[in-house]
Each structure stands twice: as C-alpha cells, then as structure tokens.
C-alpha cells in the first residue's frame, strides 16, 4: 500500500517535471527560432530528454510519461523529430505487420498474409491504415492476445465477440486494421447520414441544419480511426476550387452563422490554409462562429504547435473560434503530450468540446465513460456528444445497443459535475441529423393529480414510490406536456 502511494506521488512528480521540461523546450525553441543557436539547442534538448526517459524507465514509472520508447525501432528518435507532426504522419504505420512489429507482438506471419489476401479480394471499398507512432505508443501490448491473429485467418471468426475481447487494448482497437471491416452488415450504407445528398455547392460543403454548415477542407487525418463514419471518402484530396465554391455559398447565404471546419481532420491542413480560410470567413459579416473538428489532440498532439495556437489566438475574437475534438477512452488523456496540446488550445482561448463514439469493447461501459468525462473537464474540455456508431459499411463489429448509451447517461447525470454531461445522440440514418436519446426522469402524476412525480439520479432504478420526488402541476399545459412524455414512453 505504502509503495503504491509512493509511486503515485512519484508519478505526479515526474509528470510535473516533464510538463515543465516540455514548456521550457517550447519557449526555448520559439526564442531561438532562426538564430544560430537553434540547432544546438535542439541537440541538447533531445539529449536531456533521452536521459530523462532512461531515468523514468529505471524508476519503473512507465505510465507517467509519454511511453514512446516502448516502440521497437523508435528508441533513439530525437525529440525534435518526435515532436514534428509531419514526421509523425510520414512515419505512421500503414500495415498491421508494421504496427505489430513495433509493439513487439509475436504473431504468425502467415496469418497476416492470409488476411491480407482477403482484403485484396474484397468487394467493398476498404479504408487505409494510418497510425502515427505517437498514438501507437499508447497501446499496451501486454493486453493483446497475439494468438487471436491466427484465429482471424478463418472468416467465421471475424465477428467473434470473444476474439474481439481478447484484442484487449482500447487504443489498439481504434487503430488496427481488423478483417471484420470486410463484413457488410444488413443495415450498412456507404453514406448513412446522406451527407452527399446535402451538398448544394460542391464536394466540401454540407448544409443540413438551418443556420450552420459542415465544411470539409481536407481529406487527411492524423490517424485513420477504424470506426470512422466518413471512411468512404477520408483520404481523398479536396481541391482548392471546391473550398472556394463552399466559401462562395457561405457568402451568399446570410442564414449561415456557424461554420464547422472539418474533413478529414481540419488540423491536417497547413497553418497557411487554415489562416487563409479563417481570414476569408472573417470578412463575411453573418458568420459569427467558426468551429474546428479535429482529432489531433488525441492521435497527433504534436500538431498543436505554439505557432498554430498563436495564429488561432490572433483570430479569436474577430469571429468566435471553437474546437471539437474526439477522445474515446480515458487512457487517451494519460498521454502528457495530449494534455499539453489541450492546455495550449485552452490558453489560446478556444472553448473545447468532445465528441465520443460509443464503441464495443472500447468504451461501452458506464465506468469507462464516467472516467472519460471527468478527465475531459479536468483538461478544460466539455463533453459535448456521445454518438451511437453510425451504419457505415465495415464497422458493425464496433456497434453497441442504444440501451448501452442510455445506461451510460444514467451513470453520468448526477454522479459527476453537471457540465461533464454530454448529449447521447443517434445521427439518424437517411440524413435526419443528430437526435438526442435520453433517460426519462418523469414518472407520472401523484394520485391526486396535483404533482408531477420524478426520479432522481440515485433512485433511477428503484421501483415503486420509494425515492420519488414531487413538483406541483401548474396547469393544463403541464398536464398535456407530461402526458405527451408518458405516451412516448408507453409507445416505446
Ligand atoms: C453535426 C453536424 C453539424 C453540427 O451540429 P451541432 O449539433 O450544431 O453540433 C452541422 N452539419 C452537419 C452536416 C453535421 O453533421
Ligand atoms: S479523425 Fe475523424 S474523420 Fe479522421 S478517420 Fe478519425 S474519425 Fe474519421
């Protein structure tokens, strides 16, 4: 017990020192940029960092710092390269074999050849693999049973929940190309949200809601998440002409006050392109809010550079800039590089929200989600949505029942900060948009009809009158509204 506490304290201390080190490194880098001391500074910094890593490893505090030295073949990567997001993208793992080798997982090589052949012969479009070392480094190989790879040779096993379970690591499951992606489920659709039916001005712009648009400015992402809903077209380039068409449409439509810049991943665009688009939107009087959709704080935190956040800060205020990111598991917030990225963005004045996807075997249980939302708010990110997995082709092995989402919502409301509550939504197949699905706390009327009966967070699952609360009915409108809620419950 005592040694457990000591290592907790040690970890906190190590994290603090690491945070300071990263800050000093950033500050030094900016101060010396373009001077003749720059290269020397980087050399010294990476030497200090390597020593630090060795010390941490000796102390056995592996969780407390970015654990990238775990990756085979990356032990001596200099810090300045590791922190360079373009280097991360260039060195991303693009085959299952490369990822497994870097993780030191011993598997039957022939099995991957067999699975690879199944991919080559597939009739459905497949989605490329891309896992930056930064994300791969968070995978815990000890949780993965390598014997599964061999069992996946047999297509009858692809959808086997027990094998999915044995691929135990939630980070790994989001990154690893799994042959279950070759299965087309009965409800699957390439474009389940009908985004391609709602494009009034070229490929980049989707206009579904009255006052806001989705603006896809790049097909690139830091990682290609295996559960991606837009997997049909991620990785395809978006030409500048399409972006210009989208901007023209926004100029001509004064009802648009909120532009959601996404992709792909908005932050895979260069600083220059981002700034050019922001500057053009700034000149459109009716645009009030610009939002960025990016998973880089999770999968490629090196992208959140001081230069990028300084640029965003310069523009914050002319239009209100917001950001939505996509953490799915609390372990993703253990990465100090991710926490540093979030701190930089928050300090630049961007309010941040998080959109999670409910994923089987990753985060489909209340305890995991409760921990996730707590860690998000502790990093100044407000949980915004939890999505049910969309019906895109090839991701049915990730799909969870709607009831699981409702269980999760019950486990959050009341049990932690109110502002840590996301909205659970089904993005309706066929283009209906995001539809909230929530547990119902209204039970009915008291016997005398004068009160509305309510459950609270702690008494939700109790039966009978025990644990119910009352609020007075104020008139016929209340009665009708509550009856309507109850009819909806009956109908369900
Ligand atoms: C999700 C989405 C939006 C934004 O919806 P909010 O509920 O405002 O976050 C806008 N357009 C499209 C097409 C979307 O899918
Ligand atoms: S970052 Fe978003 S768009 Fe890109 S692959 Fe992941 S889920 Fe899909």
Separation of the first and last Cα atoms: 50 Å
How many beta-strand runs?
Answer: 12
Main pleated sheet: 9 strands, mixed
- Each distinct ligand: pyridoxal-5'-phosphate, iron/sulfur cluster
Tell me the Rg in angstroms. 24 Å
Determine the structural class based on helices, strands and strand pairing. Answer: alpha/beta
Strand content: 5-15%
Cross-sheet strand order for the largest sheet: 1-2-3-4-5-6-7-8-9
Q: Please work out how many helical segments DSSP would assign.
A: 18
Pattern of helices and strands: HHHHHHHHHHEEHEHEHHEHEHEHEEEEEH
- Let me know the average pLDDT: 90
Q: Which descriptors would you attach to this protein?
A:
9-stranded mixed β-sheet, alpha/beta, binds pyridoxal-5'-phosphate, 3-stranded antiparallel β-sheet, binds iron/sulfur cluster, globular, 492 residues, single chain
Structure described in brief:
This protein has 492 residues and is α/β, with parallel strands linked by helices. 40% of the residues lie in helices and 12% in strands.
Account of the protein in words:
- By secondary structure, this protein is an alpha/beta fold.
- The protein is 40% helix and 12% strand.
- The chain is built from 18 helices and twelve strands.
- It has helices at 2-32, 38-59, 79-82, 85-90, 96-103, 109-120, 133-136, 147-151, 161-166, 170-175, 240-252, 271-282, 296-299, 306-315, 336-347, 366-378, 402-412, 476-491, and strands spanning 205-209, 212-216, 258-262, 289-293, 320-325, 352-357, 381-387, 423-428, 433-436, 442-445, 451-454, 469-472.
- A nine-stranded mixed sheet has the order 1-2-3-4-5-6-7-8-9.
- α12 links the parallel β3 (258-262) and β4 (289-293).
- α1 packs antiparallel against α2 (38-59) and α16 packs across α17 (402-412).
- The protein is globular, with a radius of gyration of 24 Å.
- It starts with a helix and ends with a helix.
- The relative contact order is 0.08.
- Iron/sulfur cluster (SF4) binds next to loops.
């Amino acid at each position: 017990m005592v040694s457990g506490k000591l290592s907790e304290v040690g970890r906190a201390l190590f994290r603090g020192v690491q945070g300071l080190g990263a800050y000093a490194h950033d500050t030094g880098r900016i101060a010396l940029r373009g001077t003749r001391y720059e290269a020397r500074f980087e050399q010294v910094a990476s030497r200090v960092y390597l020593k630090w890593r060795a010390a941490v490893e000796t102390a056995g505090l592996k969780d407390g710092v970015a654990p990238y030295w775990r990756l085979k073949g990356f032990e001596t990567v200099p810090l300045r390269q590791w922190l360079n997001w373009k280097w991360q993208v260039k060195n991303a793992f693009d085959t299952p074999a490369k990822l497994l080798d870097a993780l030191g997982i011993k598997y039957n090589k022939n099995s991957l050849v067999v699975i690879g052949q199944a991919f080559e012969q597939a009739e459905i479009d497949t989605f490329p693999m891309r896992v930056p070392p930064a994300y791969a480094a968070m995978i815990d190989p000890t949780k993965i049973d390598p014997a599964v790879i061999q069992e996946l040779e047999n297509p009858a096993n692809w959808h086997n929940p027990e094998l999915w379970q044995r691929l135990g690591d939630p980070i790994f499951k989001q990154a690893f190309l799994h042959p279950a992606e070759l299965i087309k489920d009965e409800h699957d659709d390439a474009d389940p949200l009908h985004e391609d039916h709602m494009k009034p001005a070229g490929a980049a712009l989707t206009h579904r809601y009255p006052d806001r648009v989705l603006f896809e400015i790049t097909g690139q992402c830091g990682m290609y998440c295996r559960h991606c809903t837009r997997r049909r077209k991620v990785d395809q380039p978006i030409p500048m002409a399409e972006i210009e068409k989208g901007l023209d449409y926004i100029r001509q439509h004064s009802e648009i006050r909120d532009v959601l810049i996404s992709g792909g991943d908005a932050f895979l665009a260069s600083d220059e392109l981002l700034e050019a688009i922001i500057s053009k939107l700034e000149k459109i009087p009716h645009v009030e809010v610009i939002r960025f959709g990016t998973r880089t704080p999770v999968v490629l935190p090196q992208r959140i550079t001081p230069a990028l956040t300084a640029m965003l800060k310069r523009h914050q205020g002319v239009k209100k800039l917001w950001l939505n990111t996509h953490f799915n598991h609390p372990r993703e917030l253990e990465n100090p590089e991710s926490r540093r990225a979030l701190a930089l963005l928050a300090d630049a004045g961007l309010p941040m929200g998080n959109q999670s996807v409910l994923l089987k075997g990753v985060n489909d249980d209340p305890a995991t989600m409760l921990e996730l939302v707590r860690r998000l708010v502790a990093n100044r990110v407000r949980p915004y949505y939890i999505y049910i997995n969309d019906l895109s082709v090839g991701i049915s092995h990730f799909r969870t029942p709607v009831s699981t989402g409702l269980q999760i919502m019950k486990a959050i409301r009341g049990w932690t900060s109110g502002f840590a509550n996301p909205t659970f939504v089904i993005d309706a197949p066929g283009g209906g948009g995001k539809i909230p699905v929530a547990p119902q706390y209204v039970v009915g009327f008291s016997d005398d009809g004068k009160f509305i009966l309510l459950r609270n967070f702690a008494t939700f699952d109790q039966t009978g009158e025990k644990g119910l609360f009352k609020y007075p009915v104020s008139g016929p409108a209340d009665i009708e509204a509550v009856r309507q809620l109850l009819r909806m419950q009956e109908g369900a």
